[in-house]
Specification:
It is a single chain. The protein is an alpha/beta fold. The protein folds into 3 domains: 277 residues, TIM Barrel, CATH 3.20.20; 66 residues, no CATH class; 124 residues, Double Stranded RNA Binding Domain, CATH 3.30.160.270. The protein contains 17 helices and 16 strands. The strands form 4 sheets. It has an 8-stranded parallel beta barrel, surrounded by 7 helices. Strands 11-12-13 form a 3-stranded antiparallel β-sheet, with helices on one face. Strands 14-15-16 form a 3-stranded antiparallel β-sheet. Strand 2, helix 2 and strand 3 form a beta-alpha-beta unit. The protein is elongated and about 85 Å long.
């Protein structure tokens, strides 16, 4: 292990799943394990084999996977106060899953020893020593999590150090200092790590930080830079109990790209956003748009001055190149846009336009006027692309509306209203007249329009409306207010957003749905 290597210990499958609203199946955990191993993390904490049948099943199935150089770790506690290690079922459960590494946590805060464990300080040291010494015989590596270490040190530094020494003497390979309550600040992290070294602790050190003070990432980096930590515990996207754990999606690029440390293989850092999105999708916890490095807005530029500067030199408003972490630059177009935003967007969709072209200024003014009416193109880039193409004369005329109608009926015998839509359009000089039912008027319109178009454009069978948002633009107008409808659609490969605005919610919805279908045809070069 080189002086500049930091071992990445991923606890997404254990500590991360303690986040509110997160639930994963055994299959989910196995899929995430494969992705993490491909990414190159050094340890995957798979769960607590004695806590539930799901984790036991995971440890059985994970042995069938080729996880390359990644070590799966079983997590558990030191032995119970009233049991020997040989008689403690959860200790035996840790042994039974036969992982190359075992992590156990023990109390290092005297408050927890006396009030939670209801035992003496000396007895706790004995429990820690016994558990580590015994488990060490059954695994290649034993990692000791000193739970609540920083709070324990602040209250009773002498005892907290005794806990580390007991674990070290028992044979622990790593001593991980845990900020379990997440209340420690970076300056305290540095001071306490220094005190641990001065106390004569020689074992390899790690850090396990929670984010309750919004400093978990910097606490972890400080532990490496100024505390000599060689192992960092964290989760993908930083989710976990309460305010979450240290976010590996920020720690890894900061250590590797900015500080020159070895974490995961350098070439794999380009997959960081992919890993972030994959885990987010599996656990159904969306990545916040403004999350550093991997968020959709991490490299988004809205102001005209920013966009102009980034086009000349990305360093002017970007701390790294987005491609280094698998992200991409976004230049947003809104009422704050300038010519540079439009030029960038046009080039992004394959239209090369001269910056002196007078149509650009006209388009900027048109966008600003539409946004003042309630359109919102940041969240509807598909509608924006269609607007640009239409303005520059590159958008085909796929079909023309003759009429649409929606009908909602509820009879006293009906449990729910019945929605029906009728659509008449002209497509390729042919008249199509169709009707369809739906769960509501918008769904019925969506179904009827697709039914009318699908003979001419079979690709539209792939389009699925997955999200629908309605927003009142000018609230003071009451029921006569303008309505903005944002629709998100997808096919087998991509997702895209479209927008419509009208005083009539059905018309606004129609605009957004029509744009969604047209964008699919443009995207597929039809």
């Amino acid at each position: 292990m080189s002086d500049k290597q930091v071992l990445i210990y991923d606890t997404t499958l254990r500590d991360g799943t303690q986040a509110e609203g997160v639930s994963v199946s055994v299959e989910d955990k196995l899929r995430i394990s494969e992705k993490l191993a491909e990414f190159g993390v050094h340890y995957i904490e798979g769960g607590w084999p004695g806590s539930n049948p799901k984790d036991k099943a995971y440890f059985k199935e994970v042995k069938k996977l080729d996880l390359k150089n990644t070590k799966v770790t079983a997590f558990g506690s030191t032995r119970r106060v009233y049991l020997s290690v040989e008689d403690d079922p959860q200790i035996q459960d840790l042994i039974s899953v036969e992982t190359p590494a075992i992590t156990i946590f023990g109390k290092s805060w005297d408050l927890h020893v006396t009030e939670a464990l209801k035992t003496t300080l000396e007895k706790n040291l004995e429990i820690i020593y016994d558990s580590i010494q015994y488990l060490k015989k059954y695994t290649d590596e034993l990692i000791f999590d000193a739970e609540h270490f920083f709070d324990g040190y602040k209250d009773n530094p002498e005892y907290a150090i005794k806990v580390l020494k007991a674990a070290e003497e028992a044979g622990a390979d790593f001593l991980v200092l845990c900020d379990t309550n997440g209340g420690t600040l970076p300056n305290e992290i540095e001071q306490i790590f220094k005190a641990v070294h001065e106390a004569g602790i020689k074992a390899k050190l790690g850090i396990h930080a929670h984010n309750d003070s919004d400093t978990a990432v910097w606490n972890s980096i400080t532990a490496v830079l100024n505390g000599g930590a060689v192992q960092i515990h964290g989760t993908i996207n930083g989710f976990g109990e309460r305010c979450g754990n240290a976010n590996l999606c920020s720690i890894i690029p900061n250590l590797s790209l900015k500080l020159g440390y070895e974490t995961v293989p350098r070439e794999n850092i380009k997959r960081l956003k992919e890993i972030s999105n994959f885990v987010a999708d599996i656990v159904n916890m969306p990545v916040p748009k403004n999350m550093p490095f991997v968020g959709d807005s991490a490299f988004a530029h809205k102001g005209g001055v920013h966009a102009s500067a980034v086009l000349k030199n990305p360093r002017s408003y970007e701390h790294i190149l987005p491609e280094e972490v698998g992200n991409k630059r976004k230049v947003l177009v809104s009422d704050l846009a300038g010519k540079s935003n439009i030029i960038y967007k046009a080039k992004e969709i394959g239209i090369d336009i001269d910056e002196k072209d007078p149509r650009i200024l006209d388009l900027v003014q048109e966008i600003k006027e539409l946004e003042s009416q309630g359109y919102h193109f940041e969240a509807a880039e598909a509608s924006l692309e269609l607007l640009i193409r239409k303005h520059l004369g590159t958008l085909k005329d796929y079909f023309n509306l003759i009429a649409y109608r929606t009908l909602i009926v509820k009879r006293k015998t009906d449990k729910t209203p019945i929605s029906e839509a009728t659509v008449r359009i002209e497509v390729n000089d042919e008249l199509e007249h169709t009707a369809a039912l739906g769960y509501g008027p918008v769904n019925a319109l969506d179904n009827a329009l697709k039914k009318a178009l699908i003979n001419q454009y079979p690709q539209l069978a792939e389009v699925e409306l997955i999200d629908y948002k309605v927003r009142i633009v000018n609230e003071s107008e009451g029921t006569a207010a303008k309505i903005r409808v944002l629709v998100e659609s997808r096919d087998k490969k991509d997702k895209w957003g479209t927008v419509g605005v009208s005083e009539n919610v059905i018309e606004a919805s129609w605009q957004a749905v029509v744009d969604s279908f047209i964008y699919k045809l443009v995207k597929d070069n039809i």
